[in-house]
Amino acid sequence: MLHLLCDPHKQAYEKLRGEYRFYCNDKKVLIVSATHVPGEFSRVLRFLSERDLNLDSSYQAMFQRQILLVLELRDRESTQLAEKLLLRSNVEVLQQQPTTS
């Protein structure tokens, strides 16, 4: 399985699906920007866990001095709830990008 974050998403999806005939699907993910310090990822995971929100998968990337946490939850409803709760607690959630896997 391969997870891709693409911009522009729609064009990448159409190319993978149509031209290359890859099996693809869209998933809404959360992209959280966090400080690159020990324990920061754990803090976000603990926050979600305490609210009974579980991740299906996650991956991380570095951007300048920030870590980007890409979080995939069970379904869109869980993702939307997690986004709302994270934003209320002043966690920086970046613009939504679907991921193609």
Description:
- The chain is α+β, with helices and mostly antiparallel strands.
- It has a single domain (4-100), classed as VC0802-like, CATH 3.30.2130.10.
- It contains 3 helices and 7 strands.
- The chain has a 4-stranded antiparallel beta sheet, covered by helices on one side. The protein has a 3-stranded antiparallel beta sheet with strand order 1-7-2, with no helix packed on it.
- The radius of gyration is 14 Å and the shape is globular.
Number of helices: 3
Strand proportion, as a percent range, falls in: 25-35%
Mean pLDDT: 85
- Overall shape: it is globular
CATH architectural label: 2-Layer Sandwich
| SS content category | alpha+beta
- Side-by-side strand order of the widest sheet: 4-5-3-6
Rg is 14 Å
Span between termini: 6 Å
Count of discrete structural domains:
1
Provide the CATH superfamily: VC0802-like
The CATH topology annotation reads as VC0802-like
Main β-sheet description: 4 strands, antiparallel
Helix/strand layout:
Blueprint: E1 4-5, H1 9-19, E2 26-28, E3 30-35, H2 40-49, E4 55-63, E5 66-73, H3 76-88, E6 92-93, E7 98-100
Antiparallel strand pairs: 1-7, 2-7, 3-5, 3-6, 4-5
Which features does this protein show?
7 strands, 101 residues, alpha+beta, globular, three-stranded antiparallel beta sheet
Short description:
The protein is of the alpha+beta class and 101 residues long. It has three helices and seven strands; from the N terminus they run βαββαββαββ. The chain has a single domain, classed as VC0802-like (2-Layer Sandwich), CATH 3.30.2130.
